[in-house]
Amino acid sequence: MKCWMNGAYIEANEIKISPFDHGFLYGVGFFETFRTYQGQVFLFNEHMARLRTALKEYRITFEYADEIIHSVVRKLDELAGSEDGYFRLNVSAGVHGIGLAPSEYQSPNVILFRKDLIATARGTEKTGVWLETPRNGAESLIRHKSQGYLNNVRGRLELTSLRETEGLFLTADGFVAEGITSNVFWVKGDTLYTPSLDTGIVPGTTRKFVMGIAQTAGLNICEVMQRRGNVESAEEVFVTNAVQEIVPLSSIGDNTLPGNAGIHYKKIHELYVQSIEQLKVGKN
């Protein structure tokens, strides 16, 4: 498998990172995950803007223009036989000695990983499970997609399969937060609810886009601090991320949900797919 590291294409098994990289020592680093559609990345500018916001706050230099990163994405797909892929763009702080001495990181390690997409039909349902692990608080005013991922790993250990199940976090105060790898939405009446950023969730790029198209579909949007009972009594529930898109839940615990038969899920999903198709047309 080919990857791209610090400006060069390299085999995955040849990648080397110093143990003195502060990404390894202290978890100082950030990442974005996304997939391609005929070589194009949906919401690419939004992904890069979110990454750059985190890097700026933590004073990590990033010298590559968005156009360069996107061209590397396309090249990695080409090297894989022109098939669309799953990507992780990772920026770790770079090499420094042990100790929190640097006031800025000017030589980060930038790696773009690509792997094959797992074939999953759109509309494939998952079940939702409330996690015993509470969602931890964000290190900053907003939660960045950082390499400090232990809370998500701890939640993942509660599940037997992420392909069939999404674990849902509550905050320490009992408010609905997000999934292990997703943002969560639920519908009651003509309103689409999603947890407030004040719960410490990741401000998902797909989350924001779905809120926009849901308004187009005639739903009111409400970002809230609510407890699990509000989700369990919802008419529909689905989760979102950039790779899996919009995933309907068929149940949460003992509460049965309509899954991919949900009326509002169908409308929002249709608009999402239309946007993807427009991206493909734009490529040509």
In short:
With 284 residues, this protein is an alpha+beta fold.
Distance between the termini: 27 Å
Mean of pLDDT: 95
Q: Which quaternary structure do these chains form?
A: single chain
Helix-strand pattern: EEHEEHHEEEHEEEEHEHEEEH
Enumerate how many helices there are, as a single number: 7
Unreliable residue runs: none
Task: Please give a handful of descriptors for the protein shown.
284 residues, alpha+beta
Molecular structure report:
This protein is α+β, with helices and mostly antiparallel strands and 284 residues long. Helix content is 27%, strand content 29%. The chain is built from seven helices and 15 strands. Strands 7, 8, 9, 10, 11, 12, 13, 14 and 15 form a nine-stranded mixed sheet that branches. It has a six-stranded antiparallel sheet with strand order 2-1-6-5-3-4. Strand 3 (29-37) and strand 4 (40-41) form a beta hairpin. The longest helix is centred in the C-terminal third of the chain and has 21 residues, at 263-283. It is globular. The mean pLDDT is 95.
Tell me the layout of helices and strands.
Elements: E1 2-5, E2 8-11, H1 22-26, E3 29-37, E4 40-41, H2 44-57, H3 66-79, E5 85-92, E6 109-116, E7 126-130, H4 150-156, E8 165-170, E9 176-179, E10 183-188, E11 191-195, H5 205-216, E12 220-224, H6 228-232, E13 236-241, E14 245-252, E15 255-256, H7 263-283
Parallel strand pairs: 7-8, 7-14, 11-12
Antiparallel strand pairs: 1-2, 1-6, 3-4, 3-5, 5-6, 8-9, 10-11, 10-13, 13-14, 14-15
